[in-house]
Amino acid sequence: MKRLVIGLGNPGDEYRNTRHNIGFMVADRLAEVLKKRFSAGKGEYSCFECDVQRQHLIVAKPTTYMNLSGRAVAELVDLYNIDESGMMVVCDDLNLPFGQIRIRERGSSGGHKGLESIIYSLENDRFPRLRVGIGCPEDTEARDYVLAEFKENEKAVLNGVINDAAEAVLEWVNRGIVSAMNRFNVKLTH
């Protein structure tokens, strides 16, 4: 069976360490763990492929900006003939406390522009997503906040958060969505 994991973020060095790029950070961690390298795909994305247990895994990062992620995801779904339930999108979430992970089988975009683009391009919301909490202070403009780098106190625990999210993705690949939700949809302390 094939599994597709898409980490969301913005391309370019100026966005590399921003909160909005946590999906890219998780995809990069998966590459490290699985000892793979990203290479240019046949569309607007970079990716790698490997076998994990009995699953063929494709991990991708769109090379479009966040708001156009759906174009790359549609290309990947078509190229690899992936059913929406066989793909997982990894992205940041302003509404979750920093470091908390939430996995869902389907659902709305929750205002996330990358998810909105994917839902629009696929014409449905029936795909799993792993949201990584980045929090957002009430008196802060969301656009500025997501495009800012992590604070020093966040950087101190960010590695653990990214490890947990990568482990959650592999749990989904190996044991399915219910197992991943049961194990990781709890408040984590970092």
From TrEMBL:
UniProt GO molecular function: peptidyl-tRNA hydrolase activity; tRNA binding
UniProt-annotated site: Discriminates between blocked and unblocked aminoacyl-tRNA, residues: N10
GO CC annotations on file: cytoplasm
Main location: cytoplasm
Subunit structure: Monomer.
Family statement drawn from the similarity comment of this UniProt entry: Belongs to the PTH family.
Name the UniProt record assigns to this protein: Peptidyl-tRNA hydrolase
Species the sequence originates in: candidate division TA06 bacterium
Lineage: Bacteria, Bacteria division TA06
